[in-house]
Amino acid sequence: MIILGIETSCDETSAAVVKDGKLVSNVTTAQLFHSKYGGVVPELASRAHQRRIVPAVEEALRVAGVTNRQLDAVSAVYGPGLVGAILVGLSFGKAMALGLGIPFVGVNHMEAHIFSNLIEDPKPGFPFLNLTVSGGHTQLVLVNDAFDYRILGETKDDAAGEAFDKVAKMLGIGYPGGPLIDKYAERGDPRWVNFPRPYLEEGSLEFSFSGLKTSVLYYLRRIGYQSSASRVKSINPTGYDEFLCNMCASFQAAVVDVLVHKTLLAAKRFSVKDITLAGGVAANSELRRRLMESATNVGYRVFVPKLEFCTDNGAMVAMVGYMKTKEGRTSSLELTAEPSLEL
Ligand code: KG4
Ligand code: ZN
Fold this sequence. Notes:
By secondary structure, the protein is an alpha/beta fold. The protein has helices spanning about 40-65, 85-100, 110-115, 160-170, 175-185, 210-220, 230-235, 240-270, 285-295, 305-310, 315-325, and strands at about 1-5, 10-20, 20-30, 75-80, 105-110, 130-135, 140-145, 150-155, 275-280, 300-305.
């Protein structure tokens, strides 16, 4: 069974092919030009998807060594995300399935992130606990089985990735902020500023990062911080600015402490053996290291996807498409984009 997966929900145009449950290609182009606007510009994202979708699909088929006539189904994300961006991949996927006379499978982007842990071996066993941390979501999910989920906790305000991006903006270091903060933090002291850890009420599995973000803002105001291009530029190539590195390390440590603490709390409460990470922030080196260390120390198995499967990608979509097609869970061609789709 050969399935094509298409992802266009935000600023990555990606296509992938799964053959009998094995990933055989994954072609992703990130829209780096958004960095000059300090965030994703929805209209520009849609236009870029329009230009890139055909080359991405053709390349994914070429790398997989298959033609479109050999496909058994086409899958594409229908939410959540930016409506104009989703519509490009969704409409393209539906049209392709219609033209080829094969089934179409609509995929929930949040479900696809969880499935990024089921692409490669070794795979977690059901039930497992998944933490999805992306630009739009922070979600602890009990995965009882494929397609059987229970959301245990979510963010009440900013998503983890959003907090990374906003703090990077305050510091003036660029967009997307997550990978940059990660990089600067490598050389910084995480105890330099003791930012508050938003644990919320005792035992809560909910998250809230907006207070932490405001603490960073107040701290910067108090010390009269002015981000300047020359200061940020001084980071490379001659050496890293100590202040920025320490700020990034201190902020990142606060986020990671909370994410790891609540994940372990949920794992214990729901008696799982396996823990998985998903979403763009799962690419964070400190989060990967700390979760791996703390959870394996107390006997859990921890699974973290390869970096290319953390940020948005077609592979995770094709994997859901494959599992759904196998179970006959295909979609109507009347399926439309749902920007606020929930898991
Ligand atoms: O999953 P994703 O690609 O898109 C959404 O579905 O939102 O996640 C994007 C988010 C951005 O906020 C980005 O700053 C963050 O993931 N991110 C990171 C890292 N790499 C990407 N955050 C922290 N550390 C990283 N290394
Ligand atoms: Zn995502």
